[in-house]
Amino acid sequence: MGATTEAELAERVAEADGPLWIRGGGTQGLCGDGAALEVVGLSGVEVYEPGALTLVTWAGTPLAEIEALLSGEGQRLAFEPMDHRGLSGAGGVPTIGGAVAANVSGPRRVQVGACRDHLLGVRYVDGIGQVIRNGGRVMKNVTGYDLVRLLAGSRGTLGVLSQVALKVLPRAEAEASVLIHGLNMAQAVQAMAAALGSPYEVSGAAFGNVSGERAMALRIEGFGDSVAYRASRLREMMGRFGEVALCDDAARSAAIWKDVRDVAPFHDAPGDVWCLSTRAGQAGDLAARLGARDLLLDWGGARIWALVAPGYDLRARAGAFDGHATLVRADAETMARLGRFHPRPAPLAAIEAGLRARFDPRGIFNPGLMG
Question: In this structure, what is the dihedral angle of CA atoms 311, 317, 322, 327, given to the nearest 10 degrees?
Fold first, then answer.
């Protein structure tokens, strides 16, 4: 069943007599118990104020539609949401509601923050069918700020997003990438930390198959003259780590970072895919003990994409670390056996259960998805 208006969505939830599986664009390949509640019908931009850098849109609006609208005004969603379809093998269309619900954040997170940091306000339907509004349309309106951030990343377990208000930012005039070849994992982590700590405003730091060959990539964005100067200085600075090349062709640089954003090297590669979030400084030691077929590091090493053999228990191999490991792609048996999301420590699990009981007292939203 689906809904094309917020009122219909609230009615569907209020009348539900069993579990509901909240379904947006369907690009992440998620499925679970319960009747599917389609929200892609809630589509369209409600308010766009380029001068105020704000956008209010219904949750089912395709990301491509939003990005085209923003591009026409020289603006963008700076948190750079990925397209999961190549990785998951699923169809569908990426939507803004799905991006917010999963807090989907791309390589630029190292500079501008995550999706939730750009979220100004939300409207959502709670577990008894009430429409709740929280937050506002401008950054100075902080009413319910923590609740707005709480919904981002909750994956539909606390409420069904119907509308979101976002801060947008100007599109960069130019970009370039500095590429360093010949590094091992430990050297790459050290080099990325040095680049991110530099004054050159690096907006992406990744390591793996990022340019058709194994390399570390650093991105510089901004006004043309500034990009040329900062990229040149960064290239000089990084020379102590290895062989450095400068990609100052904006289209080629953008293609590199689109591949990093969407984890393109793993799209057609056989095996399961995991995503680990950790401290950047821990990435080298952690990656060394994963036993993965291939790795792609993003966020300066704070996010590790791992390609492993089918059925492989990467969490057991990783052991204890500061962070969590999410199983992104695997067959149904492996997903059922290992679970998509990292088991929560008991105190955190208790807090999450308490929150779900308040937001969804009947326990009907995406049961079992996040533990």
Answer: 0
Q: How far is residue 111 CA from its own chain's centroid?
A: 14
| 6-170 and 174-261 in the same fold | no
Encode pLDDT of 182-220 as tens digits. 999 999 999 999 999 999 999 999 999 997 889 999 999
Q: What is the mean pLDDT of the chain?
A: 93
Q: Which residue(s) pair with 37 in the sheet?
A: 22
CB atoms within 10 A of CB 136: 17
Task: Tell me the CB-side half-sphere exposure of residue 146, using CA atoms within 13 A.
Answer: 1
Give the CA distances from residue 83 to residues 12, 63, 138, in Å, rounded to whole numbers and listed in that order.
Answer: 29, 9, 27
Tokens 């950047």 belong to: 280
78's CB contacts (< 8 A; 6+ apart) are 108, 112, 118, 168, 169
Q: In which residue are the tokens 């104020």 written?
A: 49
* The model's pTM: 0.94
Q: Please tell me the predicted confidence (pLDDT) of residue 110.
A: 97
Class in CATH terms, 6-170:
alpha beta
Tokens of 119: 């979220």
Pairing status of strand 323-329 against strand 169-170: unpaired
Three-state secondary-structure class, residue 227? helix
How sure is the predictor about 27, in pLDDT bands with cuts at 50, 70 and 90? confident
**CATH code for the domain defined by 174-261:** 3.30.70.2190
- Domain residue ranges in the chain: 6-170, 174-261, 264-338
Q: How many residues does the chain have?
A: 371
